[in-house]
Here is the input.
Amino acid sequence: MTRTLSSSITIGLAVLLLAGIGPPVVAQDVKAMAQAKAAQLAWLSTDPTLVAEVKARNASLPAEAKAMTNDQWKTVTVLDPFVKSLTKNALTDHLKAKKDDAISELFVSAADGTKVAFFSKTSSWSHKGKDKHEVPMKGETWVGPVEVDQSSGVEQIQVALPVLDGSTPIGSVVVGLAVGKLK
Here is the structure.
């Protein structure tokens, strides 16, 4: 009986996979696709508009940004004027104009890990101390695990790139890539 059940499960899985109903990609495939997409997005690291905005934020942190904490951030709504100032600005407009279907989220952080701009409100105000910020601050690209993003609800994998002033990292840009849209 156990052998029959095992055979039935195997046949059932084979039918699902042949019908295209099984998992379309495995984690390694997703990671490879994310790394390839990160290479395509490398232009973000030196984009003049992005670099200028991060440099400006690093030079002068607004009072409201200085006072914000991750705990406070969780209580601020998307309708808050401060949040809106980070979703509706020249940098966000510039980046949205270059967005493709695979990008499910994007946020730019200053050297201190606090946000400069984003497509939609992030789960955390600062990512300082997290690999998604610290690795790019060393001039390297970071690729995270596949996960369901808390802020967007999309199954995605994040890649993070350094924002570079010449060859010096001055911030990070994190891009969420929708797993179902990666090629």
